[in-house]
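ok trying again, last paste got cut off:
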Amino acid sequence: MDSYFRNLLVLPLVTGVVVSCAADNRRTPEAGRDAQGTHGVVTSDHRLATEAGLKVLQQGGNAMDAAITAAAVLNVARPHMNGMGGDMFLLYFEASSAKVYALNASGPSGNLAIIERVRKAGNKEMPAIGAMSVSVPGATRGWAAALKRFGTISWSQALEPAVTLARQGLPVSERLSLDIAEQVKKLRADPEAARIYLPGDTAPKPGAILRQDDLAATLARVQANGPDEVYTGETARRIVGHLKGRGGFLELRDLAEYQPEWTEPISVEYRGLTVEAFPPNTQGVTLLEELALLREIDLKTLGQNSPDYLHTIAEAIRIAVTDRDTSVADPKFMRISVAQLLDPDRLRRLAAAIDPKGSAPDGKVALALDHPNTVYIITADEQGNVVSMIQSLYEAFGSGIVVPRTGVVLHNRGSLFSLDSRHPNVLAPRKRPYHTLCPVLALKDGKPWLAFGTPGGDGQTHTNLQVLNNILLFGMTPQEAIDAPRLRRMPDGSLSIEDRVPESVRAALAQRGYHVVAKTGWTAEFGGAQAVLLDPLAGTKRAGADRRREAFAGAY
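nice, full thing came through this time. structure:
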């Protein structure tokens, strides 16, 4: 590594955790501890990104400077999960105004995106991968908009660590090697992806250096020319030209006309907290609905991870997800408003039907597993500014397309559109697709108390709900709350539960009629949660990061 990373001061209180992987999920990591500090904190999905963000803070930058720097580094360090070819959302608490801002950096479908084109190509549903699954990637202009409004460092400074890392090559971790190995078939289907990520026609081994020279050159152009390079420059022309040759929907004007949107967060009150989430086109409203359904139930008395508690959580998830799957889309096309979904009288009626002693509900749908590939970033500075940020390609290596001579992996968020003309998320030109991404901030007395979030596709609200309750109701530290075993309610009604939940609890749920699937080890199926607990009076910051993935938390 160059001197930028070698010379980074990682103080003794910095704590990192690395997930075990599916290929070796019998491994049990040693108990982690929180990263603690009074000045600044960063947690992200890779150690190098966290360290780059910490250095920005230590050199006088603020939370937004650190977040955008870390986001750019993650483009290089987790290339299959996020980057310039994907989308981004963030929540920002500005200490000086005591206000939460929300930035939607997700892109719309192209002007050519119509149902007839999809069906004419022989598809009965939206293609999961390929050129038709690519909508406008919003992340790069999102980084720039956030930095311009709230940052203090220059665009060039924010991108420098990412450019440096890409030029030198990325040391391949065990996690990255296995992640690439799981996608060999997908990568081989795209010559450019195979050339970069399968050197010698095989996944790089741990300890090897992954060369991303084209990505380095693109990042350098973006650093020099600004974010418009991805939307009107050489990179934009290469993206559109490559997709048109494969039947994609994007035109140059789609990229050129795109701008991220500053919008208002949505919130509910939950046990003394104001929980701020992102409005549609994300499932933030789903998390808030789950919390609203649960706030009148004495969860603490039920006991953490008891049969009654897990059944109650699963029921709240079921009700809220039903609303999500029928209602949430680009807000311009929704037929039911956020206010209607969160109407207190309506939610009280729904909550009244949740019986902690009850049984599994009837009714199942076909199980459709997602393959979430997303990263999370939280930063907080000494002035009290806090960023809660998420960015993603959706599936591993997104659409499966790497644009030649750019190194840019294009996402496949467009695959989430419906072809059902009756659904609010039906495919249409210049329309944002529904997103699973769900950044969160929880305020107490008007100041940030907890920043948290997770990768995990449909399961993001499940993980967020449990981590929040572990801290708020059961008195856990962030790292303890993240390490605690979790439930995920699957679309078919089954409960996937980490086997560190006692067998007696799992058996009790099975007796209630649930199909319970016990999962061994620390797998990414249950997300990759990150959390920062803030004490505004003492100024202390306490962070945890999920060993189920390659996350790393640091503070000073």
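cool. Residues 1-31 have pLDDT under 50 and may be disordered. The radius of gyration is 22 Å.
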